[in-house]
Structure formats: structure tokens, C-alpha cells
Design brief:
This protein is of the alpha+beta class. The chain is 38% helix and 24% strand. The protein is elongated and about 120 Å long.
């Protein structure tokens, strides 16, 4: 609402810094506005790639230059720009909830080695539970060409190898370094765990055609600059491929979740059911999501816990008795057959008694 706009920053009462993202050059601050909790997110404007614009805002007589030291190879300066480049973009959320605060707080995270067993018993039940809640109708509307048509770059309606290449809604401006496209599959697949050799034609098509379409639309972008990958676990449980510009910044923030499309293809070529048999590392930054894994592993450990010392001793004693009994039975059968063959009827009873006593029989020749 227009009447809700603040006139200056003095009306915002600072409480604490929630998150300071040095990579994004963005800071989230908790405070109060008109007596109610609020969050202000400040971010610096990024530089343009346009040379003429850079000359206008930096390389001019108004830029103040301060010497900050040097070494044999480099000289360091601090430039103070006197135009709109110094502007800071501000987003104010007011009023806010606990969920809003949690979004900007630095989370505690856990890494999990997700075996096929853990996937089947913990992750998959969670996915099946969360999918109806996520309400993926917006994805299906994109796939059917019913929404975001202006953001759609390409549609392939083949039900087996088809996909839709669409601009990510987070990419608001046309800054190439922030470019982000998504390729949603026509097939109803949830994650890379669903992929096998039957999906290779689909994966190869997305990689080849997606690269060609993007580089054709943006001639300054080469195929080698594109990072094409899946996320696991994803934020949306309908299989999709990400296309972004590969930068050091993107690499730092995605390393723990990405699975390159080319690597996925090669893994399936080597082993058709690779993603059904492999252990994948996943990360959760929410305690309530991590807890089910911890409880499952603790329960499993309790089931296979070694027996007590008394149980082991008793078991060993029973095994010993069984062994002695079987030994004597075998001995009896052996000497019984021996006595029949040689027709020593007179010593049959004698052999039987010795076998029961556990003593060996020594035969001597008369």
C-alpha cells in the first residue's frame, strides 16, 4: 500500500543482523517498524556489462580515488562513486512471522549418507508425503502451456522425451551472469533416484537441445560456460534440470547439492540402475527433517546390538553340548558298521558302551 511506504530510515529501529551474505553482497536485519517486528534486506547494485555505462559511472572526473597500498604486482585503491551506482536496494517485510525470521537466519545443517535403504525407508516416504502439500499444479500448467508462456523458451510435447525450457522466476532482470533456466520433464519423475537407462534419450536431448536453444538466444554465452545440473534433494519434487552461467560464486553455493547432467548420464551408462543402488550425500538444514534419519539409524543399531556376555556364554555352552552329542552319534554309527562288516558280534555291545563313554577304541590284532 502506498501509505505504508516509509519516508526515511530513522523509523526503522535496528535490533540485530540476521544474515550477512558476502557472496551476494546482501544483509538481512531484524528490527521494528511502527512498534511491530520487521525485516529489512539490503543489497548492493551489481555492475553493468555495458562498457559505455561503466565509463559513465566509474571512469570520470567525479570518481574519488584513495590509495590503499601496493606490492610488487598490485596497487590497491578505494573508489568512491558519486552517482546512482552507490544506491542500495532495500526490501522491507512488515509485519513478519517466525517463519519469515527463520528464512534469514543462518541454519544448522547436517550431512547424511543416504543409502538405498535410507532412501526407501525415510526419504521416499517423506517425498510422497510432501508432494501433495507442495501442490505442483503450477508446474503442470507450465508443462501444458497454460502459464508463464512469456517466460517459456521451448516446449517439446513428446510424452517420453519431452520437456519445457522456462526462465526461472528468480531471474528478474536480464543480467547474464545471473541467468537461470529450468527444464521440466514431461514424464512424472520426482528425483534423480527415479532415473535409469530408459531415460537416457530424455537426458541427452535436454542437454543437447537446451544448450543450443540458450546459446542461440544469448550469443555471448558459450556452451562451455553453462552449468547444467540436477539438485538432490531438490526444492520441487518434479524432475527438472538447471541451466546457469558457471561462476565461482555459483560453484561455492551449490557444491553440496548439484549432480551435473553429464555425470548423471555417464553414471547410468556405466550402471543402468546406478541411482537405485548408489549412496548419495544429502544435506538438511532443518532439525525436523534430519530427525527421522537419526531415529531410523538409532533404531536399526539397537536391533543389531551385540548380545550380552551371559547370552554369548550360554550360546557357546549349548553349541558345545550339541557338538559332543553329534560326535558320539557319528562314532557309534561308524563302529557299528565296522562291527557288521567284520561280523564281530561278540564285541558289538562292548563298542556301544565305549562310544557312550566318549573314549576312543583301540583295536589290536590277535
Amino acid at each position: 500500500m502506498e501509505n505504508d511506504y516509509i519516508k526515511n530510515m530513522t523509523s526503522f529501529q535496528f535490533i540485530e543482523v540476521l544474515k550477512n551474505d558476502v557472496h551476494e553482497k546482501k544483509i538481512a536485519i531484524k528490527g521494528q517498524l511502527n512498534g511491530r517486528n520487521a525485516i529489512i534486506v539490503l543489497s548492493r547494485k551489481s555492475f553493468s556489462n555495458d562498457i559505455s555505462e561503466l565509463k559513465q559511472i566509474i571512469f570520470n572526473n567525479e570518481t574519488i580515488v584513495a590509495n590503499k597500498g601496493c606490492n610488487e604486482k598490485e596497487k590497491h585503491y578505494e573508489l568512491t562513486l558519486t552517482n546512482e551506482t552507490n544506491g542500495v536496494h532495500a526490501t522491507i517485510k512488515h509485519p513478519v512471522t517466525k517463519k519469515d525470521f527463520a528464512q534469514y537466519q543462518i541454519p544448522e545443517c547436517w550431512f547424511i549418507e543416504e543409502s538405498p535403504e535410507l532412501y526407501g525407508n525415510v526419504t521416499l516416504p517423506y517425498i510422497k508425503k510432501i508432494v501433495p502439500i507442495q501442490k505442483l499444479d503450477w508446474v503442470y500448467r507450465i508443462l501444458n502451456g497454460e502459464s508463464e508462456q512469456e517466460q517459456t523458451l521451448y516446449i517439446d510435447n513428446d510424452q517420453s522425451t519431452g520437456y519445457v525450457l522456462v526462465k526461472d522466476s528468480k531471474w528478474q532482470n536480464e543480467e547474464i551472469s545471473k541467468m537461470h533456466f529450468l527444464a521440466f520433464t514431461k514424464q512424472k519423475l520426482m528425483t534423480i533416484r527415479d532415473l535409469n537407462e530408459t531415460h537416457l534419450p530424455l537426458l541427452k536431448k535436454i542437454k543437447k537441445e537446451g544448450t543450443e536453444i540458450i546459446t542461440k538466444k544469448y550469443p555471448n554465452v558459450s556452451a562451455e560456460e553453462l552449468r547444467i545440473y540436477f539438485q538432490y534433494l531438490p526444492s520441487v519434487y518434479h524432475l527438472h534440470v538447471h541451466f546457469i552461467i558457471d561462476t565461482a560464486e555459483s560453484a561455492d553455493t551449490l557444491l553440496d547439492r548439484i549432480h551435473l547432467l553429464s555425470t548423471v548420464i555417464n553414471n547410468i551408462k556405466l550402471m543402468p540402475d546406478y541411482y537405485q543402488k548408489s549412496t548419495l550425500t544429502i544435506r538438511y538444514c532443518s532439525k525436523h527433517l534430519f530427525d527421522p534419519y537419526q531415529k531410523y539409524l538409532e533404531k536399526k543399531a539397537a536391533v543389531i546390538e551385540p548380545k550380552t556376555e551371559n547370552d554369548v556364554s550360554l550360546n557357546n555352552e549349548n553349541n558345545y553340548i550339541d557338538h559332543i552329542l553329534m560326535f558320539r552319534i557319528k562314532k557309534f554309527i561308524k563302529y557299528f558298521i565296522f562291527s557288521i562288516i567284520f561280523n564281530f558280534k561278540s564285541i558289538l555291545l562292548f563298542v556301544f558302551i565305549l562310544c557312550l563313554s566318549g573314549n576312543e577304541i583301540i583295536f589290536t590284532q590277535y
